[in-house]
């Protein structure tokens, strides 16, 4: 820290990029170094400058090492909560993919668009149902994530997105969606047809039975 302070105090460019296109702030956010991030911001680091490589801002540079306090500091200094990189990934979507519930909650409280689109993958909730924990899915829905939107790509409905999981949490996510009456059992997508079609292809008998009990038509 003392070397960083010395260089910045004597005029080092706080926003200079390395060969990989990152500024120091990008790297420090990625590695979760709160004190160093604070120093960078004190000397005028641009928290919304886009990385030359993939277009990430400081908030988009979060990783598994990034703590809540780093994100809180960036937000307090005015970092754009809905910034996105070259692939359309927002800080909220990245925190969901990293399974960082506390970070996601902070971003939502700070104005992150919970129903922002993720390209052809649909909304953030589609991605969560496809790859995140029940806790993350529950938190997003409690905070107002829409479960009625269709993905333009292969994920289909939020229920169909969960059907496509291949991990041990698949049944839990499907059960939560059905038990909470959060999905339209009759919803359809161009890729998979009805939710019942998708369940017959990719889910277990209990899920199929629950769909039928909830009124899913069996003759479509």
From TrEMBL:
InterPro entries in UniProt: Ankyrin_rpt, Ankyrin_rpt-contain_sf
Gene3D superfamilies, A to Z: Ankyrin repeat-containing domain
TM spans (from-to): none
Pfam families in the record: Ank_2 (PF12796)
UniProt KW Transmembrane keyword: no
Keywords per UniProt: ANK repeat, Repeat
Mapped ANK repeat ranges: 1-19, 20-52, 54-86, 87-119
Protein name: Ankyrin repeat-containing domain protein
Provenance organism: Lophiotrema nucula
């Amino acid at each position: 820290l003392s070397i960083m302070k010395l260089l910045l105090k004597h005029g080092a460019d706080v926003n200079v990029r390395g060969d990989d296109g990152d500024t120091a702030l990008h790297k420090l956010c990625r590695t979760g170094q709160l004190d160093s991030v604070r120093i960078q911001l004190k000397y005028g680091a641009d928290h919304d400058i886009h990385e030359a490589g993939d277009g990430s801002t400081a908030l988009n540079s979060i990783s598994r090492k990034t703590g809540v306090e780093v994100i809180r500091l960036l937000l307090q200094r005015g970092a754009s909560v809905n910034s996105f990189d070259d692939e359309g990934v927002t800080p909220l979507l990245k925190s969901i993919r990293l399974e960082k519930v506390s970070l996601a909650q902070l971003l939502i409280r700070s104005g992150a668009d919970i129903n922002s689109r993720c390209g052809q993958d649909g909304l953030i909730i589609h991605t969560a149902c496809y790859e995140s924990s029940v806790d993350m899915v529950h938190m997003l829905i409690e905070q107002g994530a829409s479960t009625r939107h269709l993905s333009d790509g292969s994920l289909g409905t939020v229920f169909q997105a969960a059907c496509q999981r291949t991990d041990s949490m698949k049944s839990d996510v499907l059960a939560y969606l059905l038990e909470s009456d959060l999905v339209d059992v009759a919803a359809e997508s161009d890729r998979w047809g009805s939710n019942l079609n998708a369940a017959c292809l990719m889910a277990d008998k209990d899920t199929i039975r629950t769909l039928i009990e909830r009124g899913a038509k069996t003759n479509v």
